[in-house]
């Protein structure tokens, strides 16, 4: 198989070198060390056979990373490297795990943005930005047995884990070539190719695409993924995913909804997901949020309700208290109640790379 990744990365590196060494334009280079530290204390009433602890202290997928960019003559070359902070996943003791979350290079011009490497899909990003409980213990179904695990991925019940969970799901995918168009009248399009490097006899590539509108506080769009099995168990086999989403945000409140349909080959049937969420700023730095999730034929089918309050103590330092009720429809995932109090601190330490 042709190795698409190395030539593309080499080409991007060559462009970056040209931008940094050429004459006639002043280069602007910048970067940052950044992170998102997320810790919580949690309680659960879980009736499953593998119920896990009643109380737990949880790392909610904390991350750190480095990003940099250089701009010259209307072109910007950028890149980032990002890792999970927790290096000891409790769900898989003794099993080697790759804790790199994202690693990519990109190029932006008047024609749009191209990005290659390991990074999040437009499909997953569309769900995360309307999920107020993403990466909190109040998100998924079940109790605390896997609440702090990167296997859970942070996505809320009512969104599909196969295409929204960070780690063993496919919200973040390697060998990912993506294009984002410039905005025109509020509309922008995206397309992606996920290269199959499994070297199997039935090797096949995956792809995706979508269209989104942003303007006057409104966000609406549709995203599509065709997963042919390019990266083995990460994608699954022959699954087509469709997401439609919409939301409205004001300075004091917001509401949104996401609907997904997964068409599975081989008689596995179809799965449907619905998440409706909203938030309201009761005070300048305090907001309440709620989210309802509904799944059918998903493996965690049933409904869930999440409520919480989030308070910004200072800029980028947030404390929260939240609770979730999950009502099962299948015996393998019994009813569960979860309550959590937590803290999140986001930081960014900027720097200018040497010339």
Number of folding domains? 1
CATH homologous superfamily identity: Porin
Order of helices and strands: HEEEEEEHHEEEEEEEEEEE
**Helical content class:** under 10%
Largest sheet data: 16 strands, antiparallel, barrel
Low-pLDDT stretches: 1-5, 231-235
Q: Structural class from helices and strands? A: mainly beta
Strand content: over 45%
Please give a structural write-up:
By secondary structure, the chain is mostly beta strands. The chain has a single domain, classed as Porin (Beta Barrel), CATH 2.40.160. The chain is built from 3 helices and 17 strands. It has helices spanning 5-21, 122-128, 161-164, and strands spanning 28-46, 55-59, 63-72, 75-84, 100-109, 112-120, 172-180, 187-194, 206-215, 218-227, 239-249, 253-264, 269-283, 286-296, 302-314, 317-328, 336-351. Strands 1-3-4-5-6-7-8-9-10-11-12-13-14-15-16-17 form a 16-stranded antiparallel β-barrel. A hairpin with a 3-residue loop joins strand 11 and strand 12 (253-264). The chain is globular.
List keywords for this structure.
355 residues, mainly beta, single chain, 16-stranded antiparallel beta barrel
Summarize the structure.
The protein is mostly beta strands. The protein has helices spanning 5-21, 122-128, 161-164, and strands at 28-46, 55-59, 63-72, 75-84, 100-109, 112-120, 172-180, 187-194, 206-215, 218-227, 239-249, 253-264, 269-283, 286-296, 302-314, 317-328, 336-351.
Could you outline the blueprint of secondary structure elements for this entry?
Elements: H1 5-21, E1 28-46, E2 55-59, E3 63-72, E4 75-84, E5 100-109, E6 112-120, H2 122-128, H3 161-164, E7 172-180, E8 187-194, E9 206-215, E10 218-227, E11 239-249, E12 253-264, E13 269-283, E14 286-296, E15 302-314, E16 317-328, E17 336-351
Antiparallel strand pairs: 1-2, 1-3, 1-17, 3-4, 4-5, 5-6, 6-7, 7-8, 8-9, 9-10, 10-11, 11-12, 12-13, 13-14, 14-15, 15-16, 16-17
